[in-house]
Amino acid sequence: MPNTAADGAPLAANPLTRAVLEIDEYAAGLGWDQPARLFALVDTAQLRTQEPALARQLGLAEDAATAGLTPIEQDELPAGQPLDEFLATIAWPEVIAGCALTVERLMLPPSAEATLPEDLDDTALASWVASHPQRQEVRMTVAVLRDGARESAVRLREKDSATDVLTGSALVPGLAEALSATFEEG
Fold first, then answer.
1. Is 136 exposed, middle or buried, given 0-12, 13-18 or 19+ CB atoms closer than 10 A?
2. Distance CA 99, CA 74 (A)
3. What is the pTM of this model?
4. Which among 15, 71, 123, 168 could disulfide-bond with 39, CB atoms 3.0 to 4.6 Å apart, if both were Cys?
């Protein structure tokens, strides 16, 4: 029998992948054209022990498996501030095991790179990508742990189904690097 959930989506083997897929599913429930969302990842067993009222509020039953990570959505990201600049301002307390970010972007296939005009500034490049006939709207969810582990989930708008979510540790390396930097001592 295949290792799938009731909805046909693959079951995740490790806690970080499960957390990424949980966040992806949450974001999918909100629909498309959403702002970026930042999540702290906390050890579920530790949360139950140290913050039992919060664990109950989050629906983390005492009898549930103790292994895992619980995503906790953070305040809305500041409007108008570039994502890389915002991420550079974050420092997590030790109790936070990791963090995740979900963000929507336009992507082009590698074949489109050959037609990329030279010397475009960021605004012109964004406009060119937005008008390209091969553009794809994607939602990327990237998570990192304090110990360096990484996981990502990518969902295409045109294939908006839990069974079509691509996962992997190296799908969005630049964003994973920026999230990892939020754990560096500064």
1. middle
2. 10
3. 0.82
4. 71
